[in-house]
Amino acid sequence: MNRLIPTLSRSRTPSLRVLPLPRLQLRHNSTDHRWRGISEQDSLFAKDEKRPKWLLPSLALVSVLVVGTNGYIYYTSPELRNRVPPLEYGEFNQFPLMEVIPVTHDTSLFRFRAAHQFPDSQSKTNRSNKNEIVLSTNEYVPAPNHIVIKDDSCQVGRSYTPITYGRNHFDLLVKRYDNGSVSSMIHALKPGEDFILARGPILSFPYTENMASEVVMIAGGTGITPMYQLIKQILRSPTDNTKINLVYGSRTESDILLGHELELLSTKFPDQLRVNHVIQAPTGALAGFGFEVKHTGLINENVLKACGMPKPDEEPLVLVCGPDGMIDALAGEKPSERNQGTLKGVLARMGFSPQQVFKF
Ligand SMILES: Cc1cc2nc3c(=O)[nH]c(=O)nc-3n(C[C@H](O)[C@H](O)[C@H](O)COP(=O)(O)OP(=O)(O)OC[C@H]3O[C@@H](n4cnc5c(N)ncnc54)[C@H](O)[C@@H]3O)c2cc1C
């Protein structure tokens, strides 16, 4: 586990080379009541005789003043005290955990402190006719993007999608896998004490505005996170008119992540965003949520058609993100981060081409 305290030992400050000091034997001189160095290497002290007597005490006083002033500034300035690095593409930095909010039985929201330099002009991108809804984050990093978190103890890295980039923080929704290396490490972190090692953001998919008239987002579980990021970006942009059809699979109603946020967005942008919840094993627990589950079971061809999936010749963009089993069944195996593999499964059978489908 990454603790805050060891940060000092792991800091990237170049290590100081310790120069050998003259070895000193100190002996009390009873005649003038001073401690004097008497070794033959004690040139520093020997030359003392030629130096003004006030020199050493003055140097000591100046040192104390400098160190004291710096310490005072550091401890009284929250900005300096809380200084953390920004996310960097190529380098792992330390980000202290500020807060943990449980969301479902196995998924929590983790807020990490980070220094972001957001251009203030960011808010200008709020479209005037859609500004009743506050898309409060200052995301300047093009969506969809992710970061990589490293478990320092075993040097394993995993990707996570920030759902919010705030001015001084970013938020992750992380599902805990009991035997999972990185997710269980993140779930064991203590706010105010621990930190993660992360680098990024990294563009997950090169989305450009209006690259397709409709984007179908098929998500399962925490696979909703890159979709949510992109949904917010599309709805925020005054020039992106892409229609979004989200097909979101969850095990039960209480496993739905970002349900309220999605509901709010689809209510505010009914002509642009359609949200279809597909619940594998419904319990009827959604009554209080205020949104309707129209489809049950796993996401398959019939469910996709019932959700209004466009035909391949209508040239939609199809994004798929979820557990391996879901990706395999819908679009064929994704062998690695950089290899999309062959398009197979439901989408291939429906006639979509590899150019139309992206697997996260
Ligand atoms: C672009 C991208 C974005 C992502 N964003 C998020 C996000 O926002 N939030 C989120 O929670 N996740 C996200 N993920 C998933 C995340 O990267 C991890 O895959 C996930 O957290 C599991 O990692 P882990 O190290 O905890 O588990 P792992 O150690 O990889 O194990 C995961 C599960 O698989 C089992 N397992 C592992 N190896 C084997 C094996 N050989 N055979 C059988 N079972 C095995 C484990 O027991 C465990 O149950 C994202 C993934 C990608 C690619």
Automatic annotation (TrEMBL):
PROSITE patterns: FAD_FR
Enzyme class: oxidoreductase
CDD domains in alphabetical order: cyt_b5_reduct_like
GO CC terms, sorted: mitochondrial outer membrane
Cofactors, names only: FAD
Cellular localization per UniProt: Mitochondrion outer membrane
Pathway(s): Protein modification; peptidyl-diphthamide biosynthesis
GO MF, one annotated term: cytochrome-b5 reductase activity, acting on NADH
Protein name: NADH-cytochrome b5 reductase
Source species: Chytriomyces confervae
